[in-house]
Design a protein that fits this description.
Layout lengths: L1 E2 L9 H10 L2 H11 L2 E4 L7 E4 L2 H9 L5 E2 L7 H4 L9 H12 L4 H20 L6 E3 H18 L4 H18 L2 H9 L5 H27 L10 H7 L10 H14 L2 H15 L2 H9 L9 H13 L5 E6 L3 E3 L2 E3 L4 E5 H5 L39 H18 E5 L6 E4 L2 E4 L4 E6 L1
Parallel strand pairs: 1-8, 3-9
Antiparallel strand pairs: 2-3, 4-6, 5-13, 6-9, 7-8, 10-13, 11-12
Helix pairs in contact: 6-7, 6-17, 7-8, 7-13, 8-10, 10-12, 13-15, 13-17
Bound molecules: protoporphyrin IX containing FE (HEM).
Protoporphyrin IX containing FE (HEM) binds next to helix 12, helix 13 and helix 17.
Length: about 425
C-alpha cells in the first residue's frame, strides 16, 4: 500500500477544473488509460479528488460507514434544493428522511406515476410538428416537467403545479450557468454571495410551494389514498410518529421537481438520438409499442444500455471524513471521492468493447451491480431509479406508436449542464408520422 494519493495529471488545477466543467469525455478516458481506473485530479484548491472507475473500490466506498465517508456533499445542487433535501443530508438524518420518502415510491404509486407519464406523452406527442427538424430535449423537458408537476401535486392542482414548475426551471437554469458552476466548484457553494443569489431566485417559488402545501393539508377530502408525492410526504411519519416540517417539505418538493424530470428528460433525449441512428432496433421496439410497460426485455435492455453509454449524471461525490484506504492508497481526511459512472461503464475490465452500444450484453446481465452506476451507488443511490426506467419506457412506447425517429445529422456529442451530461445540440431529429 502507498501513502498519499493515486497518480494523476500534473497540469495546472485551473486546466483540470475547466476540463471537468466542460465534461471532456476524451480527456477523462485518456486519464483512465494513462493512470488506470483510480486516479487523482485537482478540482478545488485544498485537496485533490480521487476518481473511481473500479467496481471493487466503488463498492467499498458505497458501503463505508457514515463516520468514514461523508455523503450528501452535493455541492452544485445544494443552493437550489436546500439543506433538508435528501441530496444534502448525511448519516442518520438522511436515513430517516429516506425511509419516510420511500413510501412515495411503492408499487401502486409507481403505476399511477407511470400512467400519468404515459398519458402526458400521448397528449403532447400528438401535437408535435411531424416531418420537420425538432430538438428532442426541450420537448422531453416539457413532457417530463408536466408529468412531474402532476405526480408531485395531483391533477386537481395542475395549474399551480405548472407555475411552480416554470419557476423551478428558472432556478435550474441559473444553477446550470457555467459561471455559477465555476463559482461553486472552484469557490465555495456556501459563500454568502451564492446563497443570496439563489435565495432571491427561489423566494417566490418557495412561497408558491408553501401555499400549495397548505392547500393540500386543508383539502376537505383528506389526503388518505392520494398517490401524489406531496400528499404522501405530508402524511409520512418517522418511527417516533414525527412528520416532516414545512421547511423540509419545501426542500423535498424542490428536490423531486429538479431530480425527477431533468435527468429522465435528458436520458430519453439520448435514447432518441441512439434510436434515430439504429432504425432496425427502432422497428423491433415499435412492433410491440402498445404492450404494457415492463413487459418487454428489449425495452429494458435498450434503456439500460443507453444509460451505460450515455450516463446522464457522469459522477457522484462523497468526502473522506478521516484518513482512509482507497484501493492501494491511503488518502487524507477531506479527500473528494468521485464514483465516475461514465468511466466505470467504459472500463474494459468490466465491459467487453465498452464503447459499443450492444443491447445483447443485457441477455446475461442484470442492472444493480457496481459496474453499472447511472443512478449512483451507496446510501444516496437514486430513489427514483425504477420509476425513471418505467417512465422512459412509457414515453418511448407512446412516441414509437406514432412516429419513426429519423436522424438529421451524426450522433450527438455531449455537453455538461451543471451535473448532467446532455446532447450538445439538444438532440436534433425528425419525428416522421407512421
Ligand atoms: C434517468 C433518470 C435519472 C437518473 C440518471 C438519476 C440519477 C441519480 C443519481 C446519480 C443520484 C445520486 C446522487 C448522489 O449520489 O449524489 C440520484 C439521486 C436521487 N434521485 Fe435520481 N435519477 C433519475 C431519475 C429520478 C426520478 C424520476 C426521481 C424522482 C421522481 C429521482 C429522484 C432522486 C432523488 C430524490 C435522489 C436523492 C436520493 C438520496 O440522496 O438519497 N431521480 N439520481
Amino acid at each position: 500500500m502507498s501513502a498519499g494519493y493515486p497518480p494523476g495529471p500534473a497540469t495546472p488545477a485551473a486546466y483540470q477544473v475547466l476540463k471537468w466543467i466542460q465534461g471532456d469525455e476524451q480527456y477523462m478516458l485518456n486519464l483512465m488509460k494513462t493512470y488506470g481506473p483510480v486516479f487523482s485530479i485537482k478540482l478545488a484548491s485544498k485537496q485533490p479528488a480521487v476518481v473511481l472507475a473500479d467496481t471493487d473500490i466503488i463498492r467499498e466506498i458505497a458501503l463505508a460507514p457514515a463516520d468514514v465517508v461523508q455523503t450528501g456533499v452535493n455541492l452544485p445542487l445544494r443552493p437550489l434544493v436546500g439543506p433538508a433535501s435528501l441530496l444534502s443530508l448525511g448519516g442518520e438524518t438522511h436515513v430517516r428522511a429516506r425511509r419516510m420518502i420511500g413510501g412515495a415510491f411503492r408499487a401502486q404509486h409507481l403505476d399511477s406515476h407511470v400512467e400519468i407519464t404515459r398519458r402526458v406523452a400521448a397528449e403532447q406527442s400528438e401535437r408535435w410538428s411531424a416531418d420537420q427538424q425538432v430538438r428532442s430535449r426541450p420537448l422531453m423537458l416539457k413532457l417530463f416537467g408536466t408529468a412531474i408537476s402532476e405526480m408531485l401535486w395531483g391533477f386537481d392542482h395542475a395549474e399551480e403545479a405548472e407555475r411552480i414548475f416554470a419557476a423551478s426551471e428558472e432556478g435550474l437554469k441559473l444553477a446550470a450557468d457555467p459561471a455559477f458552476g465555476i463559482l461553486m466548484i472552484a469557490g465555495d457553494p456556501n459563500a454568502p454571495a451564492v446563497k443570496r443569489v439563489m435565495a432571491t431566485r427561489t423566494a417566490s417559488l418557495h412561497s408558491e410551494i408553501r401555499r400549495l402545501i397548505v392547500m393540500l393539508k386543508r383539502d376537505p377530502r383528506g389526503l388518505e389514498g392520494r398517490k401524489d408525492f406531496m400528499s404522501t410526504l405530508i402524511c409520512a411519519r418517522d418511527k417516533d410518529g414525527v412528520g416532516f416540517t414545512e421547511d423540509e417539505l419545501v426542500d423535498h418538493a424542490m428536490t423531486l421537481t429538479a431530480a425527477g424530470h431533468e435527468t429522465s428528460s435528458t436520458a430519453t433525449s439520448w435514447l432518441f438520438d441512439i434510436l434515430a441512428h439504429r432504425p432496425e432496433l427502432q422497428e423491433l421496439l415499435a412492433d410491440g409499442a402498445d404492450d404494457k410497460v415492463g413487459s418487454s426485455e428489449l425495452y429494458k435492455a435498450t434503456i439500460y444500455e443507453t444509460l451505460r453509454v450515455r450516463p446522464v449524471v457522469p459522477a457522484t461525490l462523497v468526502v473522506a471524513k478521516q484518513e482512509m484506504q482507497v484501493g492501494d492508497w491511503m488518502v487524507q481526511k477531506n479527500a473528494g471521492l468521485l464514483t465516475h459512472a461514465f468511466l466505470t461503464h467504459m472500463n474494459p475490465e468490466h465491459w467487453t468493447n465498452p464503447s459499443e452500444f450492444d443491447i445483447g450484453r443485457w441477455e446475461s446481465r442484470k442492472p444493480g451491480g457496481y459496474d453499472w452506476v447511472p443512478f449512483g451507488a451507496g446510501p444516496h443511490r437514486c430513489v427514483g431509479s425504477q420509476l425513471a426506467v418505467m417512465q422512459i419506457e412509457a414515453v418511448t412506447r407512446e412516441v414509437l406508436l406514432r412516429y419513426r425517429i429519423e436522424a438529421v445529422g451524426p450522433p450527438e456529442g455531449g455537453t455538461t449542464k451543471l451535473v448532467t451530461r446532455c446532447p450538445a445540440n439538444d438532440g436534433p431529429l425528425r419525428f416522421v408520422r407512421r
